[in-house]
Amino acid sequence: MLDRSITHGPITHAPWLDRHAERITRYAAQLTDAGLDRGARPHLTPARLIAFAREAKREDTYHSTTIEGYRITPEEVDAVLSGRSVAGRTPDEVARQLAIQGYARAFDRTLAVLTAARGPVLLNESLILDLYEALWWPSVEAGIVLEAHELRRYRTRSAFIRHSDHVPPAVEKVPGLVRLTCDMINELAVGPVVRAAVAHWAFEYVHPFPDGNGRVGRLLMNVVLGSHGDPWVTIRAEERQAYFTSLERASVQDDPLPWGRLLAHAVRKARTAAARA
Q: pLDDT at residue 8 above 70?
């Protein structure tokens, strides 16, 4: 169970930080009480967890990139990941290929973090910026977006999420909210599914980057799960609407349960698949 002594979060004397802290701990309590971490977990060695994640790379690259609106095919993912040339050089085709390359690079960076871990990985700004840099590095090298120095800083403009009523925090609040999120997720006395669910929601709520927040957030979710002994989890493209709706409900309607249950279901499926592998 969650340590109720921290249910109201730290007092920072900054209202937006206090509100975020209170929601993190309250959501953790609600999701813990809902039983997200109940059920058997497969006893997998660290080496088997990494092997299972590597096996999931193709599928995860396809689904995580597709969720963000890129019109790609599994065959295109296979070609890019294998280094084969892909016919076509329209701007849309180039953008798709760079998105696949970037996600694959960030995926590999995530596996490197999990491989080096000797226990739970603590979330921090350096890790977040590493994943963001990896995600966009192929696009920077191609001269398509950003400059290299922009890959290690947060957004400098207001963010608006298409088809969402959630308005992410103002730019001046982002660094403090990211640091607070990392510190609180690291300190929560909860199970891995609850920790991952709250971490992902809190990161998406802050929306610290101009683009790529969903992909980085799902990789961070797997850092939390994997470093606590759970197999890699993929949110599938066909779950896109339920996924976005559940995060919106947590951010706008103050209800984390739909998102927590969606993730818990995905974790159970991954555990079953890993146990049978």
A: no
66-123 pLDDT per residue, tens? 999 999 999 999 999 998 766 667 888 888 899 999 999 999 999 999 999 988 999 9
> Half-sphere exposure (CA, 13 Å, Cβ side) for 129?
14
pTM score: 0.93
Please report the DSSP string for the chain in residue order: ---GGGTT----S-HHHHHHHHHHHHHHHHHHHTTTT-S------HHHHHHHHHHHHHHHHHHHHHHTT----HHHHHHHHTT---S---HHHHHHHHHHHHHHHHHHHHHHHHHH-SSPPPP-HHHHHHHHHHHHHHHHHTTSS--GGGGGS--SS----TT-S--PPPGGGHHHHHHHHHHHHHH----HHHHHHHHHHHHHHH--SSS-HHHHHHHHHHHHHHHTTPPP----GGGHHHHHHHHHHHHHSS--HHHHHHHHHHHHHHHHHHHH-
Task: Show the domains of the chain with their CATH numbers.
Answer: 4-276 (1.10.3290.10)
